[in-house]
UniProtKB/TrEMBL annotation:
InterPro entries according to UniProt: HerA_C, P-loop_NTPase, T4SS_component
Species lineage: Bacteria, Pseudomonadati, Bacteroidota, Cytophagia, Cytophagales
Pfam families per the UniProt record, alphabetical: HerA_C (PF05872)
Name by which UniProt lists this protein: Putative ATPase
Domain Helicase HerA-like C-terminal: 33-510
Top-level taxon in the UniProt lineage: Bacteria
Length: 510
């Protein structure tokens, strides 16, 4: 048997599944694509998460696009974090050409240009469905992790949330949170001290500064109402899964806001979705582009929270896929949880780069057909090393893969197309109407304003009482001074007192 035939048999044996799957590409041997060696991804194990890695310009985003397309065609919805603005083209059919025809023929699949159901979303000023969440929904523990508070500051935040629950003060946005924190160390200090004990003003001021830092990254647009319901991510149109694209191009330099949003989204999905175990298809898939922004600026507590959710959320039927330049961008604890690995080419310019490539190669199954560290630096655009978990949870053979072309547009939507896409969405009507109901800020402001006249009235009353008392004292002494007997006793007293003093002085002189 020829070497290429052994390779095809090796691939077909490793990538044949009992349940449904989709074709991602075909195997390559000695830099040649081989028809009849299709590489497939089983739907059953997509809730085991995945990684799409590779140097800039190697095709990571297009791979993400291809996987999202194939999931949609299988009726599986997905959520895409679009930090570069490259993914809106999923809404429109792609364009066929000679290069795409040749690639498709090598893989053994027809090319059918297709537009897919897309929902454009935003947490900032970008056009789209506005995703929001209230401060109360985050809770004190999550807010403390986001703000990177110490134990003392976290305790104060828990106290504040407890006080707001007791007094029915809704914490909807960051203005509400700032208002209650100021109240705790000013007008409400006596009440808080009586109820919970003394609160450190310096610690409260530190929390306030950290909230301002979060606001400066644009978080005031994210906190508030109406809160997004994560069930709206799980939708189909004409049997195809809806692809929700969260447009994040204007927050690339605001990683704090990005990691805040990511953690809140994962937490909400985990707490809302029911347990369903390992099903034949995932319920939802999330793709996080530029994933290093989540991890490089996150505190230790925040990382631990993300790691915990990634480990547990697969039981909800949710798969998470990280897209980044190097596998080392993802913490080892999370990397060890990932089933699907798509590794595009890496560049080696320094000793540090070569060390990273060697480390990356060690994370893949050993292949009798490839020197992994050598292939990692020699792949072209649109090629990748792939391994995935089969239906028994066993890693499939590592294969150098020629990836299929996207069936949707590789470019982006024009501003006019974006307006049209946003305008026809039912979710835009549901979430983009401003809501500003009475919350902690308004209630506390009213309470302080009402307390001011009462305080003035009390002070005025106290002042008049003091005047009345003084006047009464004056009247009493005046009445005594008019009494003849009292005046006589007074004169006698002072005369005898004077004599005593003068007598003692006279005796001293003698």
């Amino acid at each position: 048997m020829e070497h290429s035939d052994k390779f095809k048999e090796h691939i077909n044996l490793g990538y044949t599944f009992k349940k449904d799957s989709f074709i991602i590409g075909t195997g390559m041997l000695e830099k040649e694509a081989l028809t009849g060696a299709q590489v497939k991804i089983p739907l059953k194990t997509l809730n085991r998460h995945g990684l799409i890695a590779g140097a800039t310009g190697t095709g990571k985003t297009k791979t993400l696009q291809v996987i999202a397309e194939q999931l949609s065609l299988k009726g599986i919805p997905s959520v895409l974090m679009d930090l570069k603005g490259d993914l809106t083209g999923l809404a429109c059919p792609g364009t066929n050409n000679e290069h795409i025809e040749k690639r498709s023929a090598s893989i053994g699949i027809p090319y059918e240009a297709t537009g897919l159901p897309v929902e454009l979303m935003s947490i900032s000023q970008e056009k789209g469905v506005k995703l929001k969440a209230t401060v109360s929904e985050f809770g004190p523990v999550l807010m403390a992790q986001i703000l990177d508070l110490n134990d003392t500051q976290s305790g104060i935040l828990s106290l504040v949330f407890r006080y707001c629950d007791m007094k029915h003060l809704p914490l909807l946005d960051l203005m509400d949170l700032r208002s209650i924190l100021k109240y705790v160390i000013n007008e409400g200090k006596a009440e808080i001290t009586k109820e919970f004990g003394a609160v450190s003003s310096s610690s409260v001021n530190t929390i306030l500064r950290k909230i301002i830092e979060l606001e400066q990254q644009g978080a005031e647009n994210f906190y508030g109402e109406r809160s997004f319901e994560v069930e709206d991510f799980v939708r189909q149109e004409s049997g195809r899964g809806v692809i929700s694209i969260i447009r994040l191009t204007d927050i690339q330099n605001r990683p704090k806001l990005f990691s805040t949003f990511m953690l809140s989204l994962l937490s909400e999905i985990y707490e809302t979705f029911p347990e369903q175990g390992d099903q034949d298809v995932p319920k939802l898939c999330l793709f996080i582009d530029e994933a290093h922004l989540v991890f490089s600026n996150a505190s230790k507590d925040l990382l631990e929270k993300i790691e915990a959710i990634v480990k547990l959320i697969r039981s909800k039927g949710v798969g998470i896929f990280f897209c980044t330049q190097s596998p080392t961008d993802v913490p080892d604890e999370i990397l060890g949880q990932l089933g699907l690995k798509v590794q595009h080419s890496l560049r080696a310019f320094t000793a540090k780069d070569r060390k990273a490539i060697k480390k990356a190669a060690e994370n893949y199954p050993i292949s009798p057909f490839y020197d992994t560290s050598e292939v990692l630096t020699a792949m072209g655009i649109g090629e990748a090393l792939i391994t995935v978990l089969n239906e028994k949870g066993i890693p499939t053979p590592l294969v150098h893969t020629l990836l299929r072309a996207p069936v949707s547009r590789m470019g982006i939507l024009s501003p006019e197309e974006i307006d049209l896409q946003v305008g026809k969405s039912n979710l835009t009507k549901k979430y983009n109407e401003p809501i500003n109901r009475e919350s902690a800020f308004e209630i506390l402001e009213e309470k302080i304003n009402n307390a001011a006249p009462e305080k003035e009235e009390m002070e005025a009353s106290s002042k008049s009482q003091r005047k009345a008392s003084a006047a009464k004292d004056v009247g009493f002494f005046e009445s005594l001074s008019k009494n003849t007997m009292v005046r006589q006793l007074g004169r006698t007293f002072f005369r005898e007192l004077t004599r005593g003093i003068m007598g003692s002085l006279t005796n001293k002189k003698r």
